[in-house]
Write a structure and sequence with these properties.
This protein is mostly helical and 330 residues long. It is 68% helix and 0% strand.
Length: 330
């Protein structure tokens, strides 16, 4: 097999695996298994989940719950497999660095990111689900997936033809991506502070269009050394976080939706128009899932789909930016 085809196939495999890791990570977090193993990288001093009588001294502080511990360890196994695959891609990129069309910078960035992700995963446990770390770990996982998708596009030479993309489309796509990243960060803050159910109704919050909310407490530094599992904020602070995420969803709908609609209607090629339409469909689906979560009482399946939808929407928006900006260079 030619080395360029091998690199592309490994990049595709890594992107698919990264999506799985994002979904698994969301499932671990949403099923309250983030501290299923109170140590890192093992579990109660073992490489697998040990029997209860072998859990050791750590069990005295946090008794072993095998079901939660296995969820956490399976996520770690998949994350370690992804890290290994990214290391292989970086080594292949270095070996092929003089080949035309071979991405060189992106594999190195991915390797650095996955190392930082491992540190965030460790700190997530050792700092007892400290919200900034948990949010950073979520953003890092989504960034890894999005950059792997970009690596596939680069190494495969896909969507370089995006003819007909205007400067306005490029600016709108870039701003849309920036707004989406901010909205995903807000979603991570909602999740890490257990604020998802702070507003149990929609479109109002506790029957009010502007609820009683403590924005200062909701976005304040709470400090280290606190066990954050289950959250430590009172409801007005959590309502502020939740309501901010709703406002962010509205801004994302307007900005990113406007960008995708313009590309869909006025893109110069069929592929570009279809890509704009895909971003719009994923955006609408993500909003629908978010509303359904509130209406149906936050079922775990829908909550995990909401994370997966964010990952797919981010990847599609990155692809849209790649298409409209790479067209400018050709």
């Amino acid at each position: 097999m030619r080395s360029d085809k091998l690199f592309l196939r490994l990049a595709i495999l890594a992107a698919a695996l990264a999506f799985g890791v994002v979904m698994l990570g969301a499932y671990v977090r949403l099923s309250q298994a983030g501290l299923g193993c109170p140590d890192w990288p093992g579990c109660y001093g073992h490489l697998t989940v040990p029997p209860a009588d072998q859990a050791g001294a750590l069990a005295a502080g946090r008794p072993l719950e095998a079901s939660r511990a296995w969820k956490e360890m399976i996520h770690r196994y998949f994350a370690a497999s992804l890290a290994t695959l990214i290391l292989i891609l970086a080594l292949l990129a270095f070996r092929r660095r003089r080949e035309p069309g071979q991405p060189r910078l992106l594999p190195v960035l991915l390797l650095a990111l996955v190392v930082f992700q491992a540190l965030l995963g460790m700190w997530t446990v050792t700092l007892l689900l400290f919200p900034p770390v948990v949010m950073g770990h979520l953003l890092g996982g989504l960034a890894t997936f999005a950059l792997l998708v970009l690596l596939v596009l680069q190494s495969g030479g896909y969507l370089r033809e995006g003819a007909g993309a205007t400067d306005l489309m490029r600016r709108l796509a870039a701003v849309g991506l920036a707004v989406l990243v901010c909205q995903i960060a807000l979603g991570g803050w909602v999740s890490s502070n257990y604020a998802a159910i702070a507003c149990p109704d929609f479109p109002t919050c506790w029957g009010e269009w502007w609820p009683r909310a403590d924005f200062r407490a909701g976005f304040a530094w709470q400090g280290l050394g606190v066990d954050y599992q289950g959250g430590v904020l009172d409801n007005p602070a959590r309502a502020a976080i939740h309501f901010s995420h709703r406002l962010g969803a509205l801004a994302t709908f307007v900005v990113l939706g406007g960008a995708s609609l313009r590309v869909f209607l006025l893109g110069g090629s069929r592929r570009l128009r279809l890509l704009g339409g895909l971003v719009g469909v994923l955006l609408l689906a993500q909003i629908l899932i978010g509303v359904s979560l509130i209406k149906f009482g936050w079922p775990l399946v829908l909550a995990d789909l909401h994370n997966g939808g964010a990952a797919l929407l981010l990847a599609a928006t990155v692809t849209l930016n790649w298409a409209v900006w790479s067209a400018r260079k050709t």
